[in-house]
Amino acid sequence: MTSNHAVKTAQLRQAAEDAFAEEIAALRESDDRPRPPNWQMSPQAVVTYLLGGRLPSGFEVTPKYIGDRRLMEVAVATLATDRALLLLGVPGTAKSWVSEHLAAAICGTSRLIVQGTAGTSEEAIRYGWNYALLLAKGPSREAVVASPIMRAMNEGRIARVEELTRIPSETQDSFITVLSEKTLPIPELNEEVAAQKGFNLIATANNRDRGVNELSSALKRRFNTVVLPPPATIEAEIAIVETRVASLGRAFEIPAEPPGAEQIRRVVTIFRELREGVTADGKSKVKQPSGTLSTAEAISVVGSGLALAAHFGDGRLSAHDLVSGIAGAVVKDPVQDAIVWREYLETVVKERDGWKDFYKAARASA
Amino acid sequence: MSDIRLFGIRHHGPGSARSLKAALDAFAPDCLLIEGPPDADALIPLAAHEAMAPPVALLVYRPDRPRTCAFFPFAAFSPEWVAMRHGIAAGATLRFIDLPHAIQLADGFGVSDAAPDTAPIDAEPVAEATETPSEPAPASAAIRRDPLGELAAVAGYPDGERWWDALVESRAGADGDVFAAIGEAMAALREGAEPDPDEAFREEAREAHMRAAIRRAAKEGFARIAVICGAWHVPALMRHDAKGQATADTATLKNLPKAKAAAAWAPWSYERLAFASGYRAGVLSPEWYDTLWHHEGRVAARWLARAAALLRENDLDASPASVIEAARLAEALAGFRGRSRPSLDDLDEAAQATLCFADPAPMGLIRRKLVIGERLGATPPDSPGTPVEADFEAQCKRLRLKPGAAAGEITLDLRRETDLARSHFLNRLKLIGIPWGERREARGRGTFKESWYLTWQPEWVVELVAASAEGGTIAEAAAGRVRSRAREATRVAELSGLIGTLLDADLAGATAAVIRALNDRAAVSADVFDLMDALPPLAELARYGSVRSSDTEPVLAVVRGLVPRAAAGLVAACQSLDDDAAGAAKARIVAVSGAVALIEEPELKAVWGEALRALADQEHVHGRVVGRAVRLLFDDRAIDAAEAGERLRLALSRASGAVPAAAWIEGFLEDSGTVLIHGRELLAVVDEWLCGLDEALFIELLPLVRRTFATLAPAERRAIGETLARPGGASLDAAAGSQGFDPARAAKVLPILRLLLGPEPATTTGDAA
Prior knowledge:
The complex is a heterodimer of chains A (366) and B (769). With 366 residues, chain A is α/β, with parallel strands linked by helices. Helix content of chain A is 47%, strand content 12%.
């Protein structure tokens, strides 16, 4: 590849509060309902911000989340009752996206964030030390390096924790005091940081991922849980896959024709049927594999199929290019999932009109 | 001049009932006219009977055709029920004023296509949210069908139930003004609604009759008359004293056809009351309404506490702290949505977010027990007979079976219509818990003959009454029972048994439900052996049908679905089996192979054959299973003698170990030794292996091999023995040709083989003991 991308001076991605600053300002202006302490708008306005709508002034708010209004209402009501919010869902259900916009709308910043990983330490959640200062002057308030959580408590804002269940269980437990006592003790100074009104926590976690650190029931009880479902209709999911694949194709400059809607529909149909355990016509059930089969995976299956078609095929996405990707996404457990996939092929795919080529390709590669 | 007041209620609405109760207490009517079937007037006093426990239903039916019936269910929170109890307690006159069902159920009433044999007629059109019509109906027709839905849509609620729930049912206290407001709203709605052509006449006749009844009561001189009717009817009944209305009503009611109708109380259940079970004027949440009715105030906290208790009973974590949080969230949501108190929706979502951690399983439990509920009603034992009892008697008479008669055996010839009907009847009774007849093995084993032993127990009458909660006739009740058993069944094999039962009882209507349940269960079942157990009886049904000439195509469809599933999981299911499990697995494989052969569909055969082949290729599966798989393939000519011999040789080679090898032989040979008689090369391999064993191993394996050969038919054993005894014996001719044959050496083996095979009766007698 010879093309030399110009280095963009602009920020690659803007935080929600900057990208939608205008909308937030307009919402605040027209919002006359009571606001919980330290919220920059009322709960109803937050829901409008998330789901979009037209303000009395005629200003159009774009929808950030497309889905069930009731879920967003529960989420916002949770934060308004000073309970922490846990957003659960498989990858690609917009958990982080919702969390970011909630924080931006409620407290004006989505940047108080702890990214959960296996290596997340207690310091990242509580506080660390500026060791130079600590050595020079001994423990003092200046030497404390506040975590995003501590800063949120001090300022009465919303803190975010991404991928809560990836954080080791011991470390997760640091949240318990924060959430139940709303204070963060600093024993070295014999002090504590008390949370200001408006402080709350939004955590996200993947609820179908294997090998994560299950939340202790003590911690679980301190959260209200909202599950964000996968796209409700097949048409919505196809649209998501189509747009994302198109942008992927551009980004990697794959010299293939854009995938036919028919092939994408197939991939999405298979993913939805196996994910939901029932065929699209609702007539019969199918076994569910252990994998999550998220929309994100469907996107990557179509993407890699496209790359296969471009580099090793005739440039047109065929059933053959998709099969291995799909089988790979479905069969995560070599024994049980293989049975599920086989059964699905024999009882569902085989009978379906116009899917002969896919069935043959799948059988051939099995 | 009588004081006549109209109370427009919503059927099964607790708020409506509460308002009504307060209004009746204040009004103290001496006559209550209730929208209900006058055919059941005589049964009203029983509502106050101490043994009467709602939910119960009034059934009105034609004694000559109990299938043609209408249900009027009442729960404790039904306004009509409250009115009845109030009237009885106050000593007032109570009457049902709807158009008698003697007319409504008569042939030729109303629109001609309302065939009397269709599903039970639903007599409560107000809360009806009927299924969407096949073609888009004009807006006015929609208003007619679901008046509350239209009001709710205007108010921004998703459906009529929720709107009413938020505005009326969940209101604390009782407010008499509600009735006036409802009357006005309905008047406005009715103005805009054009009559539904299909229902217009029935509605007109019903309202005419109700108006006439009001006028009659007024003429009789009651001082205060309370009319309790569905809200939709209020504007029409208002006109009862309008000028010329009496004449018009008389004209409407003239020359209506009439049939004989009987009525009875029957126990009902919340499940049947619920929308979910298809009762059109039902409510989505009977148990929630029950809670609203019985506990005024603090309903939210009570409901959530019950939910937590329910979860704890089921060993699920639910702390009191979570209940408090759930209540707070529910309050917040209600405030958020502009309601004074949490509705069921708010509670449901709060429970889901806090108590259940968004897990759908406990939510399902809560919905089943606390939203719909499992309450069952009861009726007094001496109340008059239900349609099921009437149907029972009619059937007994028709089929000349006498319940009281002395025990005895009857033999039925299923080729004769009456006998076939008797068999169906007895099978149906068995399904509803009345094992009047017990199937005996018929002599002669002709498939068209059935032998039954009949003994009648008087207490079975109770079962008949209970059955009426599930349908108007024995057949309907039996079908209902089968459907609920199908829902509860956990094993696929259980369901496949049910299908056989259904064919026996000629309940084709329920077959679809059971087959659906079976397909669903089979699809998610991880237990391949369960699927395999289900297959043989189904295959037999599908192949031979039933003497009862039922349609077997749906059964065949099930089999077509089951075989690929069993095939897909076969190899995995056969891993790590111990000896006993391997024996069971082998038996199932044999049975399924038989079933597949019976169906004679090449595709199924191919799929199953492929699975068997994959199984035969397994290295670490129990030998008995693999051996049988190879044998089945060989019998089916999927592999030839040379390949079978090769596999046998491989299995028996030293590297595989002697014990697995013996298991392999057992699987390969047991029950039939013809392969050894006709496939001499196979016999040679077995013989060679046996002779190659060293002494210790031989002694160890002897019982097993002996056992294997013992399963063969004596004639087969003899034939094998004779083959071995012949000069040349087991060694293949070819082998003999190439290596030469030493009779003396061969003879040395013979005593042992003779010992094993017992070729002659004289020598076997000793061993067999």
